[in-house]
Design a protein that fits this description.
globular; 42% helix; 20 helices; eight-stranded mixed sheet; 13 strands; 630 residues; five-stranded mixed sheet; alpha/beta
């Protein structure tokens, strides 16, 4: 075939495939390149550098994001090393954020990683404007208080948040976008479990009761007098008043013993009280032990004789933390750990229980074992006690890795939607994902719903006041802004951590915001209590401007401030009436006669009770009014 014909064929093929390549590039590669650009140029904030945080940072760095900021207040402990792979033994006691940034930067040196060893709630270091500078925030926290704070700041700053958490083999990731999805506070969270005082003090029946007694009562009274807020018991029941008084009396006795902490007989003194005399007193109350075995007091002299060289015995017992101790072994560990704690204790710096502090853990474990033996309760090993005393659900490295990967995938979707102006569509394609250990369905998803109207965090109206809190008075907020400018009725209350104003409490009107503890970056909440046109709660963020303000200038500013678009106040629907009851009519003649019991079908009655229980899951919370005074 002549070359000129071959050239023509090549030209025809080139034109055909050239058009195809152009079509493919324009319709497929261009959006893909734009998608990658939107993601890689993002500025990301990551809060927490622990189990999930290490996995998150690794994924973000390998993804190639241009700038990552990490905030964490914690330091590295020995127990972190089994799953937080960015840390090594040489890093113990160093800040997690700095070590994580240093290690992860080796994966991709071109990435800018900025670590902070600080509390995310520090408004001086992390003001609202700082949160607004990020395209997205990723939470990798392990405590509710910090999570709630970041959730609130992201809603105020209007920055998307991806919330994540794990519990053993379970985990979840939740995308949160203000005004479009539920927030972290929309669903009630489980509260710390409490135990009745009488159970902890006198009638323990489970290992956890002995552990709580050893940690929150014995250890805290001997070494940590500042630890008074642990959930030992519920004191809301009036029947507990007598038990509380008795417990307080015993606590005072232990505090008196603590004054002898430098004495060589310190261990014998508190042992004789807690494990001998107190137990003898309880055992003498015959009525308490009619249906269960009475406790048996321990003798310091007998155990001391059996233990011999208690330090050698304690060292041997501590070699295997998964073996349950005998009474003599626990006694030896108790004496040995007491010696160590005595050397560390000073009046200026009391000791605090920490599951990673071997001295405090050994003391609590030994005391819990001895109390379990006294009350004939199953004895737990030190390893098990550590989990229970530290409220630990074992962290699984694989779970952290999976949840971190899901968080990054969700953040990529939200970032692309944010850059293209299609955030709502991106959120619809980014459901909440749950991870379980069920073999049939490891992943389950839940579509995103809008903010719950009864949520006190995301269903509020928000506004910002650029006023100097050292000059602005509460009267200017109440009268000039709310009543005159924004037409509030007289029926409203203003709260911060406590009540600072309502119609019956106007003592603070002439005080400045600063005098009331309200400074720049502080929130105040206005509760509209009017029955005519009730608004949803109004949340005002106070920001101090750079320019100097006079009182007159502030009054003029508040008088002319644009009124926000108020959300309607949520009014729960009335309970549904029971049709069965409405159909029952009683004749006048029957009112004083025999009572007739109408039995419902068992299954129908159970279903009815279940529906009634569901109706009580989200009761309206009352605002606790604590007056702020001088």
């Amino acid at each position: 075939m002549p070359y000129r014909h071959l050239a023509k064929i090549h030209l025809i093929i080139f034109r055909m495939y050239g058009f195809f390549f152009f079509f493919f590039f324009f319709f497929f590669l261009t959006p893909f390149i734009q998608f990658i650009t939107n993601t890689l140029q993002a500025r990301v904030l990551m809060v927490g550098a622990g189990g999930i945080g290490c996995e998150l940072l690794k994924d973000l760095v390998l993804l190639g994001l241009s700038e990552i900021h990490i905030v964490d207040l914690d330091t590295i402990d020995l127990s972190n090393l089994n799953r937080q792979f960015l840390f090594r033994h040489r890093h113990i006691k160093q800040p997690k954020s700095f070590v994580a940034a240093e290690t992860a930067s080796k994966f991709n040196p071109a990435i800018k990683i900025v670590p902070y060893f600080s509390n995310i709630k520090d408004t001086t270091l992390f003001p609202l404007s700082w949160f607004k500078s990020f395209d997205i925030v990723l939470n990798a926290l392990d405590n509710k208080d910090a999570r709630s704070y970041v959730n609130r700041m992201c809603l105020t700053a209007n920055v998307p948040l991806v919330e994540s958490g794990t519990s053993g083999f379970r985990g979840q990731t939740q995308p949160i976008v203000g005004g479009l999805s539920e927030c972290f506070e929309c669903n009630p969270k489980e509260t710390p479990k409490t135990f009745a005082i009488c159970t902890i003090r006198s009638t323990p029946s489970q290992p956890i009761h002995c552990i709580v007694w050893a940690k929150n009562y014995l250890f805290s009274q001997l070494f940590d007098e500042q630890n008074e807020n642990e959930p030992v018991a519920s004191d809301e029941d009036a029947e507990n008043a007598e038990e509380i008084a008795k417990l307080q009396k015993e606590s005072n006795e232990l505090k008196a013993i603590r004054d002898q902490i430098n004495s060589p007989d310190f261990a014998k003194v508190f042992f004789d009280k807690c494990f001998t005399s107190d137990i003898e007193r309880l055992a003498s109350m015959d009525t308490m032990w009619k249906t269960r075995k009475a406790p048996k007091p321990l003798s310091f002299a007998e155990l001391s004789q059996q233990a011999g060289d208690y330090k050698t015995l304690a060292t041997a017992a501590l070699l295997n933390d998964q073996k349950s101790w005998s009474a003599v072994e626990a006694f030896a560990v108790l004496l040995d750990s007491t010696d160590r704690l005595q050397k560390r204790y000073t009046d200026a710096t009391p000791l605090s229980f920490d599951k990673d502090d071997e001295d405090t853990l050994d003391f609590v474990s030994a005391a819990a074992v001895l109390r379990s033996l006294i009350f004939s309760i199953e004895v737990k090993s030190k390893f098990e006690i550590k989990q229970m005393a530290g409220n630990i659900i074992p962290a699984i490295a694989t779970t952290n890795a999976i949840v971190a990967g899901l968080s990054v995938l969700q953040s990529v979707k939200l970032l692309n939607g944010l850059k293209q102006g299609t955030l709502k569509d991106a959120l619809d394609q980014t459901p909440t994902v749950f991870l379980s250990r069920e073999p049939t369905h490891i992943f389950s998803t839940e579509k995103n719903y809008g903010p719950r109207p009864e949520c006190a965090v995301c269903s509020v109206t928000r506004s910002t006041l650029l006023v100097n809190p050292e000059v602005t008075t509460l009267r200017q907020i109440v009268e000039t802004l709310l009543q005159e400018n924004w037409s509030f009725s007289d029926e409203f209350a203003i709260v911060t951590d406590g009540l600072i104003y309502d119609p019956d409490f106007d003592d603070n009107l002439d005080r400045t915001l600063a005098d009331l503890g309200i400074n720049s970056e502080s929130f105040i909440t206005v509760h509209d209590e009017s029955d005519e046109t009730p608004h949803a709660n109004l949340e005002l963020l106070i920001l101090k401007p750079e320019a100097v303000q006079t009182s007159q200038e502030i009054t003029e500013l508040l008088a002319n401030m644009e009124k926000p678009e108020f959300k309607a106040k949520y009014i729960p629907p009335p309970p549904e009436s029971d049709d069965d009851e409405s159909d029952i009519e009683l004749a006048d003649d029957d009112l004083d006669d025999d009572v007739v019991i109408l039995e419902e079908d068992d299954e129908a009655a159970a279903q009815k009770r279940k529906l009634e229980d569901l109706g009580d899951l989200t009761p309206k919370e009352e605002v606790k009014r604590l007056k702020v005074t001088d």
